[in-house]
Amino acid sequence: MCGIVGIISKEEVNIKDSLLGLLKRLEYRGYDSAGIGFINNNKIQLIKKKGSIDDLACSIKNNYFSHIGLAHTRWATHGKPSSNNAHPFISQNKKWAIVHNGIVENYLELKKELKNTRYLSQTDSEVIAHLLEKQKASSDIEKVINVCNKLKGSFALLGMLVDKPNTLFIAKRKSPIYIMEGNLEVIVASDTICFEGKGSKYYTLNDDEFCVASLDKLTFYDKAGHQISKHAQVLDNLSYSLSKNEYKHYMLKEIMEESDVVSNIIKEYSKNRFTEFNKKFLEKVDNIVIIGCGTAYHAGLIGARFFEKHVNIDSTCEIASEFRYSDKKIKPSNLYIFISQSGETADTLACLELVKRFGGLCVGITNVMHSTLAKNVDICLNVCAGIEVAVASTKAYIAQLVVLYMLSRHFEGQLRNLQIDYMKDVEKLRLSLQKTTFTDIDEIASLISKKQSVTFIGRDIDYSSSLEASLKLKEVSYISSFACPSGELKHGYLAQVDSNVCVIVLATNQKLLDKTLNNASEVEARGGKVVICSPFKTQDKFIKIEIQDIDSDLICCLVASKLQYLAYKTSIIKNINPDKPRNLAKSVTVE
Ligand code: G6P
Are 280 and 63 contacting, i.e. CB atoms less than 8 angstroms apart? Predict the structure, then answer.
């Protein structure tokens, strides 16, 4: 989704290089156009382009020197990707320039309020620049606050004013924005990843808070315009590595990091594990409700099975965008678990807000401990995956599964007064991930890259793993892909089977193995190509993806890892950049 950066520098800098360098760090969020704006010779200058940051860089032939600038990557919502629709936007009198992340839901209404305004874009955001121009107020920050108070929806907003070439105006509601104050510069960005190597302290805004940033001071305001004080936070994860090391793509690097991620989890959770969840507390829990989107939702589906299997508490997993508009009862006696790699997904955060209103206990499982999710839940669990850059989530998914597994076994131990040594299962998983080889996948990737459609089938947890494997494949290879519970094949899917399709059968549950293999034979008998992904011996006629048998529920992580690699490899064969699949964004901060 959109990314924002801004800079004020004590020294005049090559502003194009400074802004594009920072913007590059937000590339992972997904975008389809980019732009920069800066003050040069007392004028605001904007340069915008459809396409990548590199395309934008190539189109800027001159160097410009300035103390101040802002920049944006846009993921189109209102109006197609184009240079006109790219940010920044400038007011008609050319005094204000803004970049915006979020959605202005009432932009049409606001446009009606503004007479005689010529719009240069089809976006919802441009109206903000024109509104700023028209504001009558005694100070510039008052103008910003007045405009933001009129906006419905969400925003991370960054503005600059030609008359104040050393000042940035910042506002936030439901979209992330962070401010770093260094000795020689102030940097504002949608992600603290932009601060790596630049400083160690930063500030966050809560919703409907504002900041006027200049080199000598940061002044914070609430929505009534009163000054407020804020404490700086220390960057918690400077082990961020944005380097791809020897890997060609982030997705591959992140798959290969999975055993290290499990090591991090072992270190983090080796002491004082889950102390908040004691027997007294757990006995009062009626149901466990897990909420997430995309890959996090799939981790939640498996997590719900872990809880049901080990803890005997009814557990479900809900898609956040559905849950928020459903009539589901929210009960204070339920335990709500929100899973989000980024901690910034708009639908997941909306559910959190909803649940909090009704008083349910909220637990977060996230990879970003300074995210909005982490700040707003009652208890937050870190998945310790380190920064994940590729749009398609891989190592964070594995980490979410491991944390859910540990939590379910901890609950079991508490409720049954048992000492369960579940960390040995986690250690076994770590070793197996370390030993995993992917050579068996290459041939299968080549096979499926020629197929029109690929379906993953399985029963129970294997069905949930199928949903994730199918999502991964369609995200990065664009192959039409489905997941089907094995037992449902006969109720519709078999009509699709012919020699153009491939069915990948997930079979990690020995008790269900024969039934699942019968389903595989049904596909084969109708001309479909069958691949079996299993730790067990199966008939030689099927192509096999070997999975190590680790004798625990965590085997779903080994399956995920292999099938993530399958998706990766297929994208490479199809000449697609798996790190940035078309139309997708890493962090979906709007509804
Ligand atoms: C986007 C990403 C997915 C991710 C989903 C939820 O769709 O492309 O990889 O699973 O958002 O993101 P979250 O940060 O909440 O886990």
Answer: no
Cα-based angle 549, 551, 556 (whole degrees, multiple of 5): 70
Distance of CA 585 from the midpoint of ligand 1 (Å): 8
What is residue 306's three-state secondary structure? helix
- 456 neighbors 560 (Cβ within 8 angstroms): no
pLDDT in the model for residue 462 = 97
Q: State both tokens at 466.
A: 């199928």
pLDDT at 237 over 70: no
What digits encode the pLDDT tens for the residues 242-284?
A: 778 889 999 999 999 999 999 999 999 998 789 999 999 999 9
pTM for the full predicted model: 0.87
Distance 358 CA to ligand 1 centre (A): 26
Please state the atom number of ligand 1 nearest to the C-alpha of residue 342.
14
Alpha carbons 129 and 123: distance in angstroms, whole number: 12
Annotation marks residue 2 as catalytic: yes
Residue in 393, 401, 475 to alter for ligand 1 test, most ligand atoms within 8 A of Cβ: 393
Distances (CA, A) of 506 to 87, 305, 481, 514, 523: 45, 17, 15, 12, 14
Atom of ligand 1 nearest to the CA of 296: 16
